[in-house]
Design brief:
23% strand; 13 helices
């Protein structure tokens, strides 16, 4: 195989703030894997919470360049097993794994969802995320992007008041993501009010390691709770089943599509609701997430919609929320020149 790397600093439409940080740009790494005249594209985003930088990912992949390029590629799953033996992070592994799946689909001449035997005619609607801001600005963002389903980022001293005010301006369903900023007591207390305000579920209300607190929340919260920061890799799924009603899988956290597919399967076996989220990826990463849609209960794939600039064509989302799959194999991605 041939391997190439490219880095980008993509501006966001608006400053994106959650409970622990704010960003105005998203740094990304694009990996290209080529074989027999076909090229697959994969993506990983930088993320300070997980100590993942574009520079670090680039350096660790470059250190393994000869090993990766000499690999006799046939199947993405075998390639991922090979990558697991290399001293690279899951973020780097994700970009390589997505590129391998895209390459495989292009070699086979079919979209990934088709190769997996799934039907994309039915799928969950993605939410559109509203980051923490002044109430005035949060309302303005909703009016700028009318959408039937919003994820509201919280983690302030006035969270319930924010939701109460936002509800005056839309009938859309709300999902709440506190990114671990609440306590168990706060979560249990907030849940009845938020349910009355049309909230569907709470995502990662408590810090990732607060399993004791989550046990209380599971017993007393009137709203379902979905794990995000608590569900990183495959081995987390079973523990989350005892403390959450569902899991939010991120490709960069778990290491790509290969482990994500296994996590989806195991989550369903354990009776969990299964969601796949994003990290403000470009259309490269979002198109990979889209291949999983027929297997999901919930999805958060609004990353490319939050960008002021994109770098690729691929799966897109219409203003109605309809997902448009290109008539192309793999993930359907082509990079913009």
């Amino acid at each position: 195989m041939q391997l190439s790397l490219a880095t980008y600093k993509l501006p966001l439409k608006h400053t994106f703030r959650i409970s622990r940080e704010s960003i105005t740009h998203q740094d990304i790494l694009i990996v290209s894997l080529s074989k027999d005249g076909h090229t697959g594209f994969g993506e990983a985003t930088a993320n300070s919470y997980y100590n993942a930088s574009v520079g670090q990912m680039t350096a660790e992949i470059e250190a393994q360049r000869d090993t990766i390029c000499s690999y006799q590629f046939e199947y993405p799953e075998a390639f991922h097993a090979f990558l697991k033996e290399l001293p690279i992070s899951n973020f780097s592994r994700c970009a390589l794994d997505i590129a391998a799946h895209d390459l495989y689909g292009k070699i086979k001449g079919e979209p990934l969802y088709s190769l997996w035997g799934t039907d994309p005619s039915q799928y969950p609607l993605t939410n559109y995320t509203i980051g923490i801001d002044s109430i005035e600005n949060m309302v303005a963002k909703m009016k700028e992007k009318p959408w039937p389903l919003y994820k509201i980022k919280l983690g302030t001293a006035d969270d319930v008041a924010i939701v109460r005010e936002l509800r005056k301006h839309t009938d859309s369903v709300f999902r709440i993501d506190a990114n671990g900023a609440w306590s168990a007591k706060e979560t249990i207390s907030n849940a009845p009010v938020l349910k009355e305000l049309g909230v569907e579920f709470l995502e990662q209300p408590l810090a990732a390691g607060d399993w004791e607190g989550m046990e209380k929340v599971m017993h007393y919260s009137v709203l379902p709770v979905i794990a995000d920061e608590s569900c990183i890799v495959e081995t987390d799924v079973e523990r989350c089943a005892l403390h959450y009603h569902g899991i939010n899988i991120k490709l960069v956290k778990c290491g790509g599509l290969t482990p994500a597919l296994r996590m989806i399967k195991r989550g369903k076996e354990l009776g969990l609701k299964v969601m796949v989220g994003c990290m403000t990826e470009s259309t490269v990463g979002i198109s990979a997430v889209a291949q999983l849609l027929p297997q999901l209960d919930y999805v958060d794939m609004d990353g490319a919609m939050l960008l002021a600039e994109d770098i690729a064509h691929g799966v897109s989302i219409a203003s109605s929320g309809k997902v448009i799959f290109p008539e192309k194999p793999g993930t359907g991605v082509t990079l913009l020149s």
